[in-house]
Backbone:
């Protein structure tokens, strides 16, 4: 079983974020300022040994990938942001490409949405910082040329000599069939058998029915959470010394219920499952957050083992994990002060 963990590269400064949020902004900014919304709420989340890393510093990705490899993770799926040739957060994976001594596999998920401030929970209407557009052959050519040097890296994940690409919202691409045909042709010219395209399924992506889509992956908990969501009225803690408490509603979901529902959904060949660690995006959204209740390393391990068993039965060797380092969503495998290496130990045990 090849476990692939989604990887967020937003742990270093970029001009776009500095302009929008102020100098020095990274994902850690939201993580550090998070506060508990109710009694027992696990916020703020803190990395073990205070490791608030910068992905551009030598040794950080080596540490991450060594940790992942020891646990049995097959590779990382890096989120990729492309806006008609303009990129953001591309430096970590480009550094990985240069560091051939790092023996770890990877692939891309193109997060093809506009770059907006609401991605980090800003209030009010969405403020689009960089629009998303797709163009025609000239644009597709430029995008493929960027991909090519990664595809030619022996560490890039391939399926039957086809580089694996995930696309977040495939149906948003007006001429996606033409674009994929073009990329397949270019890949064959480079000696591959084409590309292996995986559509990320959140709301029954109809694009997955295209004959050019090779597989789908359930992006969880996004796909299942809506029908398992509850709205709870809770009391929030107050600042020290205050005698007032505010009551408000918060959206929550039970970790066990969501996972049991995920396991009940039948999957076919090349319909890949996803297991998720936890979910709590209050660092980004405050009281408008969605919060999972009840996640523990032991429960994660139980549902991971069952997902592995079902994936084998369904003939699928890829199983995705959400996520390696989504700290702003409380969704990460990396060690923290609460659970240590607990989630990584569960992966190792499940594979053994």
Residues:
């Amino acid at each position: 079983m090849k476990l692939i963990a989604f990887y967020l590269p937003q742990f270093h400064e970029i001009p776009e974020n500095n302009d929008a949020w102020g100098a020095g902004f990274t994902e850690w900014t939201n993580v550090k300022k998070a506060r508990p919304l109710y009694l027992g709420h696990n916020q703020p989340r803190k990395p073990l040994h205070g490791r608030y890393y910068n992905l551009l510093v030598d040794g950080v990705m080596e540490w991450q990938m060594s940790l992942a490899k020891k646990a049995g993770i097959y590779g990382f799926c890096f989120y990729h942001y492309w806006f008609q040739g303009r990129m953001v957060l591309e430096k970590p994976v480009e550094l990985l490409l240069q560091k051939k001594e790092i023996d770890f596999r990877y692939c891309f998920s193109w997060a093809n949405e506009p770059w907006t401030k609401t991605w980090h929970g800003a209030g009010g209407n969405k403020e689009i910082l960089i629009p998303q557009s797709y163009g025609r052959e000239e644009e597709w050519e430029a995008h493929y040329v960027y991909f090519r040097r990664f595809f030619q890296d022996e560490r890039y994940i391939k399926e039957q000599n086809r580089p694996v690409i995930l696309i977040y919202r495939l149906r948003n691409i007006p001429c996606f069939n033409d674009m994929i045909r073009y990329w397949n042709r270019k890949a064959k010219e480079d000696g591959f058998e084409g590309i292996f395209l995986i559509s990320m399924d959140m709301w029954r992506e109809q694009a997955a029915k295209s004959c050019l889509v090779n597989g789908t992956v359930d992006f969880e908990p996004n796909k299942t959470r809506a029908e398992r969501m509850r709205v709870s009225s809770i009391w929030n803690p107050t600042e020290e010394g205050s005698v007032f408490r505010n009551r408000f509603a918060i959206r929550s979901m039970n970790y066990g219920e969501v996972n049991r529902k995920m396991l009940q959904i039948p999957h076919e060949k090349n319909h890949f499952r996803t297991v998720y660690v936890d979910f709590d995006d209050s660092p980004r959204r405050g009281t408008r957050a969605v919060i999972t209740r009840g996640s523990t390393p032991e429960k994660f391990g139980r549902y991971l083992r069952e997902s592995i068993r079902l994936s084998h039965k369904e003939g699928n060797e890829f199983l995705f994990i959400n996520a390696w380092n989504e700290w702003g969503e409380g969704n990460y495998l990396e060690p923290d002060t609460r659970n240590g290496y607990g989630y990584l130990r569960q992966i190792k045990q499940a594979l053994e």
Remarks:
- The CA atoms of residues 268 and 313 lie 9 Å apart.
- Confidence is low (pLDDT under 50) at residues 119-124, 238-247.
